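Go through this chain.

——
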Amino acid sequence: MERVSREIRLVARPKGFPGEDLFEIAETPIVDPADGQLLIRNAYFSVDPYMRPRMNDVRSYVAPFTLGEAMAGGAVGQVVASRNPSYSEGSWVVHGLGWREWALSDGSGLRPIDASVAPISTSLGVLGMPGLTAYYGLFELGEPKEGETVFVSGAAGAVGSTVGQMAKIAGCRVVGSAGSEEKLAWLRELGFDAVFNYHEQRAREALVDLAPDGIDIYFDNVGGDHLEAAIGALRLRGRVVACGSISRYNDVEPAPGPRNMFMVVTKRLRIQGYIISDHFDRFGEFYAAAQEWVHDGRLRYRETVIEGIENAPRAFLGLLRGENIGKMLVKVGPSE
């Protein structure tokens, strides 16, 4: 019997909140690698907020996904056959070939990982792209100083929870928002100084209560009313690190922007957006620091793992609904 690999393809563009009918599961043959190639059996692949804008037929973070092709994105797997001298059979690698059980690679865009350092799933989370996103955004763009106050929206996600802990490592006071009591409890465990449920309290009111003297840095994963509230709460020469706007990704019509943008001028604020793929040259620096923090317990993580490639669309839609705590992953193969 011919060996087959299953993959998830995008077959239609969404209008508003996407549905599972936009995806299909397809089978492709597993072929032996040719010269220079290697065959990878994936253990996990990642679902991330940035994937939602890429479903639209306009350029966002990068080019849109192509209809009829497997969803691209981060994945980690083990090399099971190799005709590439740079990668030995049995080694573990991170790649961007996405939502599939098996991947054939020519060796480009791969990052080897040491499976003895931490669980391999962390290479897609706290020790991978989300961790680097938090590290670069906070330290390079936010420039935290000891004693400052940092507000993080979407604080129980993979990036937000990492940002908050890194801000504590930098000696800051940290306020976080999340959408459930379970998430707030997790943030308290991580050492957040103050937290609020945005379903129960508007961000503007919460910041008046929890940061009455104002904030110095806003790490924005949400946009919308959180951004407007943060602009109002920022002190003179405050900084906004614009990482994402998940509250707006499913809007059919563009929503009005913050109504208090004049404060950017009067308060001399700085708003800086970034795309982490522009800064992968900083990965080594980030990894050295984050690995140490994970080992000594200063940087903790959680993962929400969905089993089975057929459940990838459900995992993705759950991410957009905020059903995950920490990193959302789909497990599709052995991890040891």
